[in-house]
Sn-glycerol-3-phosphate ABC transporter ATP-binding protein UgpC (Bradyrhizobium aeschynomenes), 366 residues
Amino acid sequence: MAEVNLRKVVKRYDDVEAVRGIDLDIADHEFVVLVGPSGCGKSTTLRMIAGLEDISDGDISIGGDVVNDVPPKDRDIAMVFQNYALYPHMTVAENMSFGLRLKHYPKAEIKSRVAEAARMLDIADLVDRKPKQLSGGQRQRVAMGRAIVRNPKVFLFDEPLSNLDAKLRVQMRIEIKKVHQKVRTTTVYVTHDQVEAMTLADRVVVMNKGRIEQIGTPNELYHNPATRFVAGFIGSPAMNFVPCRLEEAEGRLHLRLTDRISFPLPPARAARYQSVSRNEPLQLGIRPEHITETKPHAEPGIEPFEALLEVTEPMGMETLVYFTLNETPVCGRVSPNAGARDGSPLRMAMDLNNMHLLNETTGLVI
Ligand SMILES: Nc1ncnc2c1ncn2[C@@H]1O[C@H](COP(=O)(O)OP(=O)(O)O)[C@@H](O)[C@H]1O
Ligand SMILES: [Mg+2]
């Protein structure tokens, strides 16, 4: 059993409260990613789990035991950092086995664990090399191997891929996922990169200013963000936010975006927003993929409007288009065949079945 539980965990540095009372339950075998902008408290949280930082308040348990006062070496965790310093004078095998040798594991046991980890990481033919004879990606694998051979209760990763180039990062992301599928060790992984968080995690924990904004599966966070922060942080290009109002017209609830654009809301949305005050300052939240060119057989809730495109960005499989609604910049995603051109009008459609409505004052999704 190696679940990890955080109860009202606080970290204070003098007058800075880096972590402000975090509750988090990580299940055995689960892969949880802490994501958020730089300085939001991710590393501090991870280092408290590792025991590298004292906690100012609250409790941390690993495998059901409170570990607040247990030193790092006795917590049965293995950590992989962005700067995965390998010993330059040791071979790959020696680097991987270093921790086991310190603990006087039997030679045969060490050998089989290193061989197994090397096979899993696809570096079996490199075990006799020195770190300087390896590429960045291979070194990162060795660093992971060093963690795997210890067979810990919990893996802790702090931005392990940040030093790699973009292509290698994507490859290693897939490797890490494969390794987790095999060893199934409970994992807490820290990154500022929302794509990495979405692709790796069973559940994502979005942090902001020392607090948890929302916890959910990647799809839950993407489709049902609870706050403006999460809505804007998850997804690329980011969700659009446009000031709007609700109004009654022709006996139906409408969403008014500009003097000229007011859309009837689909019935499910109208029911959900019925009780929202008509005077409340609101924002429409809508993802670029829900603003497209018009299609021949539009479904209910997909409303046409005309946009004057300022800039278009052909991406190959799609074209990103940029225009404004009441001076608010908006991004849409159209087919490369939609005839989108810089400076030209385009007939567009907004899918209100996938809209979000936010209270501008509280930042909460309604
Ligand atoms: N040793 C320290 N002394 C004082 N403040 C610190 C220390 N370590 C981190 N902090 C502060 O705590 C906050 C969270 O830092 P950190 O957990 O490293 O953020 P993240 O990993 O999300 O980028 C930041 O404001 C940072 O400046
Ligand atoms: Mg950090």
Notes: The mean pLDDT is 94.
